[in-house]
Design brief:
4 strands, 19 helices, mainly alpha, two-stranded antiparallel ribbon
Length: about 450
């Protein structure tokens, strides 16, 4: 029987056990912390010292730490569930399907413009609303769209996945990654948005060039398709998309208004999870009313959308338990001290690249963006304090590692769901997307080095 990667929840549970063992074998210690100019506590480099009277944790801590962690991360967990419910209501209105059908009708004879427009739309939706799993349901529509353009299913999935990956990697206000990571790092929610907005289009252009170049080869020669000769990966007969109505336009305008309110609230009013949750709930009510949904249908859609995020919410809690276990055993700073030593020897610019490498590798085991933020940011933020990398740069390294690797790793349920719907074998997808991920990681490394040099904070 072939070995497969265990479920992410199992991996996180194993990491909690490993964290407990580390509290038994590593020397307890801590750094001195001090408030910086913004008032947040940061680690003072060179002040780590061992502690002789640290408590020894009981094996029972394995069972008590998880409910404690769920309670500790409750604000993020409920925010995730609310956003999932809101997206469920929007999806139930048929707005997303109808918008894609409208794009096909308008730009069906201009494949390049249509591919770029689709990638831009998916990228913006991921960057701002954190949309991801919702895209799986759109794959059949995009496959039909590509069939009309004499393109293959690889191009259809590429449009979605690359837009989604760049949207998460250069996320402006993604509630599942940016908000969570900045909260854990002690940063103002949404801060540093200028650089992330500036790099979004250049990174998307790298992705578009890759997908469009492949699409041109397939249009010129169908046998050049990476899925040529694979029956289950061939596009079916084209289905008729829903008609784009005034109700759909109204829902899109409500989403745009919410996005503008999100930015204004974060930048000018200091909003955080409570206010942002209220704003998303208002969007759900608006989508319910404007989309013409019956009350019961809207309620079921909200519940289904929230239910789809239950695993993500649990992953957030389990991930928080890892750091909480290390904090209880007073070895978190010991690990930070050990990891910071090699990074401190290469300068802050290369240290930032090292953070990207660490985040990219960890993403294989923790594909949940929120979960990875809770696992890694308690380590990366203080490491950055020690090696001269700002916490904002540490968050950016996390975003790159999470977003770019999401479209490559087989442990990402969203990606595998897309490939499953399209009938694309993973090895063929790897041949298609592998070179692009390397390009994006290289671009991310360069951006991180410049961010350090520019004093991005």
């Amino acid at each position: 029987m072939s070995w497969r990667v265990p479920h992410t929840l199992i991996l996180l549970a194993a990491m909690i056990v490993a964290a407990l063992i580390l509290t038994w074998v590593l020397p307890a210690g801590n750094f001195t912390t001090a408030a910086d100019e913004t008032g947040r506590d940061v680690v003072v480099p060179g002040t780590w010292q061992a502690l002789e009277d640290a408590p020894r944790l009981s094996p029972l801590a394995l069972f008590t730490v998880i409910p404690r962690a769920l309670a500790d991360a409750q604000a993020v967990i409920f925010f995730v569930l609310i956003v999932g419910g809101v997206l469920g209501v929007i999806r139930a209105t048929g707005t997303l399907d109808a918008a894609l059908g409208r794009l096909l009708a308008r730009f069906g004879d201009r494949a390049g413009l249509l591919i770029f427009g689709g990638m831009l739309l998916f990228g913006i939706a991921s960057s701002t609303f954190g949309m991801a799993v919702e895209y799986i349901a759109l794959i059949p529509i995009l496959i039909a769209l590509c069939r009309g353009l004499k393109l293959d299913t690889m191009t259809a999935v590429g449009m979605v996945a690359v837009g989604y990956g760049v949207g998460y990697g250069a996320a402006a206000l993604n509630p599942f990654t940016v908000m969570v990571a900045q909260d854990v790092a002690g940063l103002q929610p949404g801060s540093g948005i200028g650089l992330r907005l500036a790099i979004f289009l250049p990174l998307l252009a790298i992705g578009f060039h890759h997908v469009w170049r492949y699409a041109q080869r397939v249009q010129a020669d169908p046998q050049a398709s990476l899925v040529y000769g694979i029956p289950e990966a061939q596009p079916p007969e084209m289905a008729e998309p829903p008609v784009f109505s005034q109700r759909h336009l109204a829902v899109l305008l409500a989403m745009l208004t919410t996005l503008l309110g999100l930015v204004a609230g974060i930048v000018f009013l200091g909003w955080y999870l409570v206010e942002l949750s209220a704003l998303f709930l208002a969007l759900a009510v608006a989508a319910w009313w404007l989309g013409g949904l019956a009350g019961d249908d809207a309620a079921r859609a909200f519940g289904d959308g929230a239910a789809a995020m239950t695993m993500t919410a649990l992953l957030v809690g389990f991930a928080r338990a890892i750091a909480l276990m290390l904090e209880d055993g007073m070895v978190l700073h010991t690990i930070v001290h050990g990891l910071s030593m090699p990074l401190s020897m290469v300068g802050p610019e290369l240290s930032a690249v090292g953070m990207l490498a660490m985040q990219s590798m960890l993403n294989l085991f923790i594909p949940s963006g929120s979960g990875q933020a809770f696992v890694t940011m308690p380590l990366m933020a203080p490491i950055g304090d020690i090696v001269g990398v700002s916490r904002q740069v540490a968050v950016l390294a996390f975003l790159f590692g999470d977003g770019f690797m999401n479209i490559l790793i087989p442990t990402n349920a969203v990606l595998m769901g897309m490939l499953g719907v399209a009938g694309i074998p993973y090895d063929r997808w790897l041949r298609f997307i592998g070179p692009l991920v390397l390009k994006l990681l290289a671009a991310g490394a360069v951006i991180l080095m410049f961010a350090v040099m520019l004093g991005y904070d």
